[in-house]
């Protein structure tokens, strides 16, 4: 069986890559593999290949290649053929954030399902990106300046402005309104971080702080330049009573941050932690 340190080493290699060099599907599989080390990765890679080939064949059956055709192809392959759907009943189940278990169960979170949509799009050379929409990951397709936003969690349905506005208000309150920031694309590394952050938050909420700390370790492997992860690491260590380790992590956060507010926050945290040593 592959051991955790070997997978972390592979994830660290991804952490050194430029964003456009990251194979999103492979990276997400490795993140899942670290929690399911007995899985046979080749089976899941073969599943990716099958999805892509089915999508290529489905597009070839259509009279033209446009946004509507591509949206229909994604729905046909992922929803009709393979029955992928959002897990509304047990949304917070950690399996929904693990791509291997999502493929096994054919259901997951918006972001894990979104990764599958993006795997197909990227393999076919389609212009597609993830959107960091509040509370709900979305996928945007584009051809020659025309764009379409789809929701992987709800069968890949097209999201028009009224639907987006309704979703935003449900997540951020009735006073919230759509702004250009809601349409900003996510980098591949940020998609992976958001995927792992889902896991970390659920572990913290259920008091599994040691596992949450391991998740932060994974996040630091794929995003070594994300300085806020040192703060997260420090806070989790402090919550487990490991004060010296927490101080060291927060000091690292302070030294690496370019934001004066972050440095001030770090100094306050360090003072509070040092008082706990007395």
Q: Any idea how many domains?
A: 2
* Shape designation: globular
- Structural class designation: alpha+beta
Q: Unreliable runs, pLDDT <50, ≥5 residues?
A: none
CATH architecture of the largest domain: Roll
Radius of gyration: 20 Å
Q: Strand arrangement, largest sheet? A: 3-4-5-6
Mean pLDDT: 95
- Number of helical regions: 12
Tell me about the largest β-sheet.
Answer: 4 strands, antiparallel
Strand proportion? 5-15%
**If you consult CATH, what is the topology of the largest domain?**
C8orf32 fold
End-to-end Cα distance, whole Å, is 44 Å
The ordered string of helix (H) and strand (E) elements is HHHHEHEHEEEEHHHHHH
Total number of beta strands: 6
The residue fraction in helices comes out at 55-70%
CATH class of the largest domain: Alpha Beta
